[in-house]
Amino acid sequence: MMSPSFPSNNQYIIKVSGEGSIPTTPDRAIIVLGAITESPNISTAQKENAETMSNIINSLMELGIPRENLKTVEYRIDIQYDYEDGKQTFRGYKVTYLLQITIDKIDQTGLVIDTAVKNGANSVSDIKFTVAHPNVYYNQALSLAIKNAEQKAVTIAKTLGATLHQVPNQVQEVSATSEPVPYQTALYAKSVATPIQPGQLEISAKITAEYSYYQ
C-alpha cells in the first residue's frame, strides 16, 4: 500500500506498508494425545480410562518430561447409541481424556508419541511445532518490516524528485504471525519408531508508516 496525500504548507505525506519475516527452526513441540474408552457401564469406562491415562502420564514423566508440561485439555463423557431401522438403542458410554504435552527437546517428539501409544494412548489429535521465545524472532521481523516501509518511502520520494523526512510521523503495528507449524497426524504403529520432521517456522510482522516529504 503506497499513497501520497497533499496537506498544506508544501508538506506532503506518503503512507506505506512494510513486511518482514524471519525463518527459524522450531525448538518446541506441542502434542495432544490421550485415551478413549468405551463400556456399557459408566464406572467401568471411567476406571479403564483413568488407569490408561495414569500409565501414559507416568511413562512420559519417566522420559524426563516435567509434570508442569502435562496439561489436561479435554475430559468428556458421551452416551453412545446404535441406530437401526430408525430406532435408537443405548450402546454404552465413551470417555475421552486428552492431554497436552509440551516438549522442549524436539528430537524426542517421535519417542514421546511411541511411548504414549505403547502405554495405551489410542488418540493422537494434534502435533504442532513452535519456538520457546517467539518474541526474539518477532522483534527481528518487526525491524525488517520498518526498513521495508522506509525503502518504499525513499523510492517514492526519489521518483517524485522530493526530499524525504526520514523519521516517520507515525508507525503502526498491523499484525503478528508466529503460528505453530501443524504436523499431519495419523495412526501410529507401536512396533515402528515414528519419524517426525518439524520443518521450518516463519515468523512475520507487518506495519504501516507515514512519512513527510517536501517539494
TrEMBL record:
Pfam families: SIMPL
Annotated source species: Aneurinibacillus migulanus
BP term (GO), one: DNA damage response
InterPro entries for this protein: 26kDa_periplasmic_antigen (IPR052022), SIMPL/DUF541 (IPR007497)
Top-rank lineage group of the source organism: Bacteria
Positions in coiled-coil regions: none
Name of the protein this chain belongs to: SIMPL domain-containing protein
